[in-house]
């Protein structure tokens, strides 16, 4: 069995953003030369997510509105976690949107369902953060 590991780095200039990282992950798969197996992709930070959904800007806007209703950034004083930091809402948004995805690798391709794409969800940006890609198979 082969295995492959790579870290992808992102520095989002805004506090929050959703980025389609499917091309980056597909490049990892190609580099790995693994044709059949499993691919894990996870955020390596507790204020960012990796998730799978549709690459549709209206939906991403709706996520932003929905997440702000569930865990509004302001007022930052409403959270016990905030004090030294102001990112309690980012921890909660990450919890809802998830840490990682696992995708089957079949014949050298990500075996997606219809419209599935991989996204990096940033909730406390403006600094460098990592995403891990681990692939096992043959
Ligand atoms: Zn924090």
Structural commentary:
The chain is α+β, with helices and mostly antiparallel strands. It has a single domain (2-137), classed as Jelly Rolls. The chain is 25% helix and 38% strand. The strands form two sheets. A five-stranded antiparallel beta sheet has the order 1-8-3-5-6, with helices on one face. Strand 5 and strand 6 (109-110) form a beta hairpin. The longest helix has 14 residues, at 57-70. It binds zinc ion. Residues 81, 85, 87, 91 line the site of zinc ion (ZN).
Question: What is the number of domains?
Answer: 1
Which structural category fits the helices and strands? alpha+beta
CATH second-level architecture: Sandwich
Question: What is the mean pLDDT?
Answer: 98
What binds here, in terms of ligands, is: zinc ion
Q: Nutshell version of this structure?
A:
By secondary structure, this protein is of the alpha+beta class.
SSE map:
Layout: E1 2-11, E2 17-20, H1 22-32, E3 37-43, E4 48-53, H2 57-70, H3 88-97, E5 100-106, E6 109-110, E7 117-122, E8 128-137
Antiparallel strand pairs: 1-8, 2-7, 3-5, 3-8, 4-7, 5-6
What distinguishing features does this structure have?
single chain, alpha+beta, 5-stranded antiparallel β-sheet, Jelly Rolls, 3-stranded antiparallel β-sheet, binds zinc ion, 3 helices, 138 residues
